[in-house]
Amino acid sequence: MPKQKQITGQEALDKLMEGNRRFVTGQLLHPHRTEEARLGLVSGQSPCAVILTCSDSRLLPVDVFDQGLGDLFVIRVAGGVLNDQIMGSIEYAVDHLKTPLVVIMSHESCGAITAVSQGVKLPGHTATLTPSIDAALKRAQAQGGNLINNAARELALSMAQEVTNSEPILADQIKSGKVMVVACYYELASGEVTLLSNEQDNIPIYSPI
Ligand SMILES: [Zn+2]
User: Fold this and answer.
1) In the chain, where does DSSP find H-type helix?
2) CA of 123 to the centre of ligand 1 (A)
3) Which member of 52, 53, 68, 182 has the lowest number of beta carbons within 10 Å of its beta carbon?
4) How many Å lie between the centroid of ligand 1 and the Cα of residue 142?
5) What CATH number is associated with residue 91?
6) Does some domain include residue 149?
């Protein structure tokens, strides 16, 4: 299989959003899942996007965007929160694999956010998830509406901002226009992915000029 042509972050985003439309409307293509696809990827990978999202079992990134083998570099952790290892994984994809798009995706009815919102003292290592979620909850409290889901949107936006500002690798790649970062939100019932902005107007705000 010939090496995939390098695409831009915007082209990768268009590809993912088209895949999500197929997922929502039940017209999945299930691309790149054949033996030929497997064999073509043995010598290397060139994923079009990094996806950082929650580990929630109701959210399957490769299916949500109707992609297949070799298409997405998926990083999952409860709540979809960032830490140094996760930032390092994003850097690996962007710097080493030349992935042009980073997608930070939160979701409806997130259990990790719900637990923190209830003031539950998370036991053991799960307590490390709390600070970012707590900050998102505080920002969402002023908004009215559904606290948990608004906090999920706030969390994705703040993680995207953190990635955008991350020195030394990501900030430079994003400023130079080689990489685009977007925040988005996944609805469990509809399966729809919505791009987020601070103005809630569905425009990705972290794209480079
Ligand atoms: Zn979750």
Assistant:
1) 9-24, 35-40, 61-64, 84-91, 111-117, 130-141, 147-165, 169-175
2) 17
3) 68
4) 21
5) 3.40.1050.10
6) yes
Distance 207 CA to ligand 1 centre (A): 25
Tokens 């103005």 sit on residue: 199
Q: Does residue 4 fall inside a structural domain?
A: no
Q: Judge whether 124 lies within some domain.
A: yes
Give the residue numbers spanning the domain of 41.
9-195
- Look at the chain and report how many structural domains it folds into: 1
Global pTM reads: 0.91
How remote is the CA of residue 119 from the centroid of ligand 1, in Å?
17
Q: Prior bond to 168 cis, omega within 30?
A: yes
Going from the Cα of 199 to the center of ligand 1, the distance in angstroms, rounded, reads 23
Say how many Å lie between the CA of residue 157 and the centre of ligand 1: 15
Decide if 206 is inside a domain: no
CA 148–ligand 1 middle distance (angstroms): 10
Give the range among 12-16, 119-123, 198-202 with minimum mean pLDDT: 198-202
Q: 3-state class of 45 per DSSP?
A: coil
